[in-house]
Amino acid sequence: MPEHRILILDDEPEIGQYVATVAELSGFESTYFSDPDAFFAAITVWPEACAVIDLQMPALDGIEVLRQLSAMKFRRPIVIMSGVDRKVLESARHFAKAHDLEVSDIVSKPARLDELRQIFERLRGSIHLLPTRAELADGIARREFQLHLQPKVRLVRDGEDGLSYVPLGFEGLMRWQSPSRGLVMPDHFIPQIAAAGLGAEFSNHLFDLALNTLKSWNEADIDASLAINLSASDVEDLSLADRLWKRCANAGIDHQRIIIEVTETAAMQHPERALDVLTRLRLRGFLLSLDDFGTGYSSLVQLQRLPFAELKIDRSLISDCTSSEHTRIIVKAIIDLGHNLGLTVVAEGVEDESTLELLQGWSCDLAQGYLLARPLPPERARAWWLAHRNMNGRPVASE
Ligand code: C2E
Ligand code: CA
Ligand code: CA
């Protein structure tokens, strides 16, 4: 059963108590705090609890609370409450989103009883949808996850009209084949895995799948590269590079075929530690790719210190290329910048030919997206490779 606990932070005791009572009426265990430190201590004790926070408090304002929850990698639903106007509440929601926090509702004070009841009912509904720590731990232990594979291609210009591509490899994207839930997508388990502290178990499962994939490709003479995604907790694990390298050596896999994708946000959470871990990976010969570029806040000077070989432009930018002149300018500038820093530039989320043509005109090196193929189960990925490896045809929506 999912845990039904709510931790409430509000400097006004009467309000805090009132919200706690309503939460209890809706079937939650709830605890109310007026002191932010006590609230944060409780979060570490109950990382699976949901949070209700007041935006305006004398000791610490709500944005600071959000910042701290983000630093603690809090990944459970948050309800924001405040007497400030709706616009401020909305910008708090944006702030939270940019910091990987999940705001399930925003409430203007004074909150009406029926409004709060509805919010807590919704919250209960959404918690039921999220896997619990125990379920995830079982799923990982039983090896219920699969690696789907999305092709990554090099763009080439040939002849007069000629836009074509050469298949290079795949990005591995995890799916959870849960016996009770069916096929679960990463957005519904990656944050929960981080919140549940199961990062190391999960990445071990991922490495198993990645190495098995490469082994099966070797047997079938498929020389594709394989990109895998690491999360923030992996990037803090000093033993990661050695572990992965040894496992490749034992399995007889050339580690140069593995590309490691790390998001800007994960790399910047603890920049010194990330520099250490990523440099070790690079020294071990793995290629590093900076994922979701253009969505975070990191400075390019910092990024340049990290040993990346590749930069992936986030799909939110790519999908706006055809409709927004402003975005086109940004994307073109990122491609030039990447090239000036000696990086291979990848566009992800390419969904139509006109976007692909723009990217090609700006000398973007690689592309990935539904236009070329969706993430495919292993058997279909293999068939895609065999059908495309010798073909420099114009892209068609083949999958
Ligand atoms: P990501 O690394 O940015 O992966 C790309 C996501 O964009 C994938 O979603 C993919 O299916 C989707 N995508 C690809 N082409 C298109 C397109 O043309 N249009 C649109 N609209 N979407 C496209 P998916 O598979 O749901 O993965 C979501 C995120 O989950 C990934 O984002 C990655 O951050 C995370 N993730 C997936 N597998 C792993 C894993 O093994 N480890 C970790 N740490 N994170 C993972
Ligand atoms: Ca990725
Ligand atoms: Ca990405």
TrEMBL record:
InterPro entries: CheY-like_superfamily (IPR011006), Cyclic-di-GMP_PDE-like (IPR050706), EAL_dom (IPR001633), EAL_sf (IPR035919), Sig_transdc_resp-reg_receiver (IPR001789). The modification 4-aspartylphosphate is found at residue 54. The keyword Phosphoprotein applies. Residues 5-124 form the Response regulatory domain. It comes from the Bacteria. The keyword Ribonucleoprotein does not apply. Keywords: Phosphoprotein. This is Response regulator receiver modulated diguanylate phosphodiesterase. It comes from Ancylobacter novellus (strain ATCC 8093 / DSM 506 / JCM 20403 / CCM 1077 / IAM 12100 / NBRC 12443 / NCIMB 10456). The lineage of its organism: Bacteria, Pseudomonadati, Pseudomonadota, Alphaproteobacteria, Hyphomicrobiales.
